[in-house]
Amino acid sequence: MNILLVRLSAIGDVVMASPLPTAIKKNHPEAKVTWLCQPECKELLIHHPDVDQVITWRKNDWRALWKKGHLLQLNKEIRRLKNRLRAEDFDLALDLQGLLKSGYLAWLSGAEKRVSLGASEGSHLLVHQVISRDGGDQDLIGSEYRFFAEQLGYDTSIFEMTLGISSESFASAQSRAQNSFGAEFFVICPFTTRPQKHWFDDYWKTTAAQLLKQWNLPVVMLGGPADVDAAYEICRDTEIINLTGQTSLQEAAALISQSKGLIGVDTGLTHMGHAMKVPTLALFGSTCPYLKTGLKSSKVIYLNRQCAPCRRNPTCGGTFDCLREITPKRVMDEFALLYKPAS
Q1: Residue ranges of the domains in the chain?
Q2: Does residue 191 carry a pLDDT above 70?
Q3: End-to-end CA distance of the chain
Q4: Domain 2-151 class?
Q5: What DSSP element (H or E) covers 284?
Q6: Who contacts 163 (Cβ-Cβ below 8 Å, separation ≥6)?
Q7: Any idea which fold 167-338 has?
Q8: What pLDDT is attached to residue 29?
Q9: Could you check whether 2-151 and 167-338 share the same CATH topology?
């Protein structure tokens, strides 16, 4: 059986969908599993033990050609991807994103059967079957992917997020830590997509200082290239070790796996903490993708205000009380319950 998974982005969703290839191979050990994603997510998948190959969709290139009116070249790119996908002769395409773009790419694959998770934007017209996102335990991390797998008849008795880290990335992260700040450290992940999902700079400064004071371990901050300026503001006049924009996604995942604990907001790096089973405290404000992680080492703080989820239309005037009321003291108290240093 030849199976295509379509989950193009974002990093956090790819992490939460990562148990699916393993569930497939429990039922079909002989299956070849291919994952179609955007280039920025490829690093998370190329070393996944149950993903046989990764194909990338260069969304930004297609968009640029469209905006410039280079329609002939865009058509060539579409045909190139179509030929690449159809050469695989897929028996089944699973659209894990449920959007028009992901449904279109599943259709483009020519798979004999196409199934979508919660199809929207008209993508139901491009598939043979739609499975709701609303089944199962909605509070559990990755619940929609678990329910999707169950409805397809896959074994979900063990449904654990899996990040494949290359030995080179692991060794690189280990060497960086040992040479720069020591083998034992905490990680903070302050950066995400929208301001109403961000904790506050002063809170991060206070919490980082308290982590260092209470356990005498350095605090390492991770983020992407787009977060460099914001990282500078948080780190100014602190002892935070700022690696924002200085690691690959693989190296960031490796550092998280080697850390003694992680505190972060609703971002892919925070979800990696759960996947790596390190003590992880997630701070959710305007959005709450899950409340339970299924792990004793992880916890979510979420105040569940009436205005949530505000998504892109906050009604608080920018005060973001849903996060302001999650104080550094509460974060430290909750994190102390998760992090148990060896005696």
Answers
A1: 2-151, 167-338
A2: yes
A3: 50
A4: alpha beta
A5: strand 280-284
A6: 15, 18, 44, 48, 253, 257, 272, 275, 276
A7: Rossmann fold (3.40.50)
A8: 96
A9: yes
